[in-house]
Amino acid sequence: MRAARGAGVSAVRRCAWAEGTSEAMTEYHDREWGRPAHDDGYLFEMLVLEGAQAGLSWSTVLAKRENYRRLLDGFDVKAVAEYGPGKLEALLGDAGIVRHRLKVASLPRNALAFLAVAEEFGSFDAYLWSWVDGRPVVRHRARGARPPARTELSDRLAKDLKKRGFSFVGTTITYAFLQATGVVDDHAGDCFVVREPSGG
Q1: Do 128 and 46 form a contact (C-beta atoms < 8 A)?
Q2: What percent of the chain has pLDDT above 70?
Q3: Which of 48, 61, 90, 186 has the fewest CB atoms within 10 Å, i.e. the most exposed one?
Q4: Is the pLDDT of residue 48 over 50?
Q5: Catalytic site residues?
Q6: CA distance to 78, 156, 160, per residue, from 169 (Å)
Protein backbone atom coordinates (compact mmCIF):
# COMPACT_ATOMS: atom_id res chain seq x y z
CA MET A 1 0.00 0.00 0.00
CA ARG A 2 1.48 3.30 -1.06
CA ALA A 3 0.43 5.31 1.99
CA ALA A 4 1.00 2.50 4.45
CA ARG A 5 4.75 2.28 3.87
CA GLY A 6 7.65 4.20 5.26
CA ALA A 7 8.13 6.93 7.78
CA GLY A 8 5.08 8.94 6.72
CA VAL A 9 2.56 6.46 8.05
CA SER A 10 1.78 8.45 11.21
CA ALA A 11 0.96 11.55 9.14
CA VAL A 12 -1.63 9.74 7.03
CA ARG A 13 -5.24 10.66 7.77
CA ARG A 14 -7.44 7.61 8.26
CA CYS A 15 -10.96 6.84 9.38
CA ALA A 16 -11.14 7.52 13.10
CA TRP A 17 -11.63 3.86 14.05
CA ALA A 18 -8.31 2.96 12.42
CA GLU A 19 -6.23 5.68 14.07
CA GLY A 20 -4.27 4.88 17.21
CA THR A 21 -5.19 1.21 17.04
CA SER A 22 -3.16 -1.92 16.43
CA GLU A 23 -0.94 -2.38 13.40
CA ALA A 24 -3.26 -5.15 12.23
CA MET A 25 -6.29 -2.83 12.36
CA THR A 26 -4.44 -0.08 10.52
CA GLU A 27 -3.24 -2.52 7.87
CA TYR A 28 -6.76 -3.91 7.44
CA HIS A 29 -8.17 -0.42 7.01
CA ASP A 30 -5.48 0.63 4.55
CA ARG A 31 -5.49 -2.48 2.37
CA GLU A 32 -8.96 -3.97 2.56
CA TRP A 33 -11.85 -2.20 4.27
CA GLY A 34 -14.22 -0.49 1.88
CA ARG A 35 -12.33 -1.59 -1.23
CA PRO A 36 -14.51 -3.40 -3.78
CA ALA A 37 -13.91 -7.16 -3.54
CA HIS A 38 -14.96 -9.64 -6.21
CA ASP A 39 -13.10 -12.86 -5.40
CA ASP A 40 -15.46 -15.53 -4.07
CA GLY A 41 -12.79 -16.96 -1.79
CA TYR A 42 -12.27 -13.59 -0.14
CA LEU A 43 -16.02 -12.97 0.09
CA PHE A 44 -16.45 -16.28 1.92
CA GLU A 45 -13.60 -15.39 4.25
CA MET A 46 -15.22 -12.08 5.14
CA LEU A 47 -18.59 -13.77 5.64
CA VAL A 48 -16.99 -16.20 8.10
CA LEU A 49 -15.12 -13.49 9.99
CA GLU A 50 -18.04 -11.08 10.18
CA GLY A 51 -20.24 -13.89 11.49
CA ALA A 52 -17.63 -14.69 14.10
CA GLN A 53 -17.60 -11.04 15.15
CA ALA A 54 -21.24 -11.04 16.32
CA GLY A 55 -21.18 -9.70 19.88
CA LEU A 56 -17.41 -9.11 19.79
CA SER A 57 -15.04 -6.41 18.61
CA TRP A 58 -13.56 -6.57 15.13
CA SER A 59 -10.07 -6.32 16.61
CA THR A 60 -10.70 -9.57 18.51
CA VAL A 61 -11.67 -11.42 15.34
CA LEU A 62 -8.93 -9.84 13.25
CA ALA A 63 -6.36 -11.08 15.77
CA LYS A 64 -7.65 -14.61 15.17
CA ARG A 65 -7.79 -14.35 11.38
CA GLU A 66 -4.68 -16.41 10.65
CA ASN A 67 -5.86 -19.11 13.04
CA TYR A 68 -9.13 -19.28 11.13
CA ARG A 69 -7.17 -19.50 7.89
CA ARG A 70 -5.08 -22.37 9.25
CA LEU A 71 -8.02 -24.28 10.71
CA LEU A 72 -10.47 -23.72 7.86
CA ASP A 73 -8.27 -25.00 5.04
CA GLY A 74 -7.41 -21.49 3.90
CA PHE A 75 -11.11 -20.55 3.87
CA ASP A 76 -11.72 -23.15 1.15
CA VAL A 77 -15.51 -23.03 0.90
CA LYS A 78 -15.81 -26.52 -0.62
CA ALA A 79 -13.69 -28.02 2.16
CA VAL A 80 -15.65 -26.21 4.89
CA ALA A 81 -18.93 -27.41 3.37
CA GLU A 82 -17.84 -30.99 4.07
CA TYR A 83 -16.96 -30.51 7.74
CA GLY A 84 -18.62 -33.11 9.94
CA PRO A 85 -19.20 -33.41 13.70
CA GLY A 86 -15.63 -34.52 14.41
CA LYS A 87 -14.10 -31.52 12.68
CA LEU A 88 -16.53 -29.15 14.37
CA GLU A 89 -15.67 -30.55 17.79
CA ALA A 90 -11.98 -30.14 17.02
CA LEU A 91 -12.61 -26.49 16.09
CA LEU A 92 -14.47 -25.93 19.35
CA GLY A 93 -11.41 -27.20 21.20
CA ASP A 94 -9.04 -24.71 19.58
CA ALA A 95 -8.62 -21.42 21.43
CA GLY A 96 -7.27 -19.83 18.26
CA ILE A 97 -10.79 -19.06 17.05
CA VAL A 98 -14.06 -17.88 18.59
CA ARG A 99 -15.28 -21.02 20.34
CA HIS A 100 -19.00 -20.36 20.16
CA ARG A 101 -20.88 -23.57 19.44
CA LEU A 102 -23.55 -22.03 17.20
CA LYS A 103 -21.02 -19.98 15.26
CA VAL A 104 -18.84 -23.02 14.64
CA ALA A 105 -21.88 -25.13 13.67
CA SER A 106 -22.85 -22.44 11.14
CA LEU A 107 -19.60 -22.85 9.19
CA PRO A 108 -20.52 -25.85 6.99
CA ARG A 109 -24.14 -24.68 6.65
CA ASN A 110 -23.05 -21.27 5.45
CA ALA A 111 -20.50 -22.85 3.12
CA LEU A 112 -23.20 -25.01 1.55
CA ALA A 113 -25.51 -22.00 1.20
CA PHE A 114 -22.64 -20.00 -0.31
CA LEU A 115 -21.99 -22.71 -2.89
CA ALA A 116 -25.69 -22.90 -3.75
CA VAL A 117 -25.81 -19.15 -4.36
CA ALA A 118 -22.64 -19.33 -6.48
CA GLU A 119 -24.17 -22.11 -8.57
CA GLU A 120 -27.42 -20.21 -9.08
CA PHE A 121 -25.84 -16.87 -10.00
CA GLY A 122 -22.57 -18.05 -11.53
CA SER A 123 -20.62 -16.75 -8.53
CA PHE A 124 -21.35 -15.37 -5.09
CA ASP A 125 -19.75 -12.17 -6.34
CA ALA A 126 -22.44 -11.83 -9.03
CA TYR A 127 -25.17 -12.34 -6.45
CA LEU A 128 -23.71 -9.87 -3.95
CA TRP A 129 -23.04 -7.05 -6.39
CA SER A 130 -26.42 -7.45 -8.08
CA TRP A 131 -27.89 -5.81 -4.98
CA VAL A 132 -26.19 -2.52 -5.95
CA ASP A 133 -26.19 -2.92 -9.75
CA GLY A 134 -22.47 -3.60 -9.66
CA ARG A 135 -21.51 -0.18 -8.26
CA PRO A 136 -20.41 0.59 -4.69
CA VAL A 137 -22.72 2.64 -2.52
CA VAL A 138 -20.50 5.59 -1.56
CA ARG A 139 -21.23 7.30 1.74
CA HIS A 140 -18.13 9.32 2.59
CA ARG A 141 -18.86 10.87 5.96
CA ALA A 142 -17.57 13.88 7.83
CA ARG A 143 -14.94 13.09 10.46
CA GLY A 144 -16.63 12.02 13.66
CA ALA A 145 -19.88 11.02 11.94
CA ARG A 146 -20.50 7.35 12.65
CA PRO A 147 -21.83 5.05 9.94
CA PRO A 148 -25.16 3.40 10.73
CA ALA A 149 -25.30 -0.09 12.19
CA ARG A 150 -27.74 -1.16 9.49
CA THR A 151 -29.51 0.20 6.42
CA GLU A 152 -32.46 -0.70 4.26
CA LEU A 153 -30.03 -2.49 1.93
CA SER A 154 -28.58 -4.61 4.73
CA ASP A 155 -32.10 -5.36 5.96
CA ARG A 156 -33.10 -6.73 2.55
CA LEU A 157 -29.88 -8.63 1.96
CA ALA A 158 -29.90 -10.18 5.45
CA LYS A 159 -33.46 -11.35 4.92
CA ASP A 160 -32.55 -12.96 1.61
CA LEU A 161 -29.42 -14.61 3.02
CA LYS A 162 -31.44 -16.13 5.85
CA LYS A 163 -34.01 -17.39 3.36
CA ARG A 164 -31.17 -19.08 1.49
CA GLY A 165 -30.02 -20.94 4.61
CA PHE A 166 -27.31 -18.66 6.00
CA SER A 167 -27.01 -17.99 9.73
CA PHE A 168 -25.22 -15.26 11.68
CA VAL A 169 -26.24 -12.84 8.95
CA GLY A 170 -28.44 -10.40 10.86
CA THR A 171 -28.72 -6.94 9.39
CA THR A 172 -25.88 -5.48 11.51
CA ILE A 173 -23.49 -8.28 10.56
CA THR A 174 -24.60 -7.99 6.95
CA TYR A 175 -23.93 -4.25 6.92
CA ALA A 176 -20.44 -4.84 8.33
CA PHE A 177 -19.93 -7.42 5.56
CA LEU A 178 -21.02 -4.87 2.93
CA GLN A 179 -18.54 -2.36 4.36
CA ALA A 180 -15.74 -4.92 4.54
CA THR A 181 -16.14 -5.98 0.91
CA GLY A 182 -16.53 -2.48 -0.48
CA VAL A 183 -20.12 -2.89 -1.59
CA VAL A 184 -20.62 0.08 0.72
CA ASP A 185 -17.80 2.63 1.01
CA ASP A 186 -18.08 4.28 4.42
CA HIS A 187 -14.60 5.81 4.55
CA ALA A 188 -14.49 9.26 6.11
CA GLY A 189 -14.36 12.00 3.50
CA ASP A 190 -10.88 13.09 4.61
CA CYS A 191 -9.45 9.55 4.76
CA PHE A 192 -6.43 9.01 2.51
CA VAL A 193 -8.16 6.05 0.85
CA VAL A 194 -10.79 8.41 -0.58
CA ARG A 195 -8.08 10.77 -1.73
CA GLU A 196 -5.86 8.23 -3.48
CA PRO A 197 -5.15 9.26 -7.10
CA SER A 198 -6.46 5.91 -8.33
CA GLY A 199 -9.70 6.35 -6.45
CA GLY A 200 -8.87 3.34 -4.29
Answers
A1: no
A2: 92
A3: 90
A4: yes
A5: 28, 50, 58
A6: 20, 11, 10
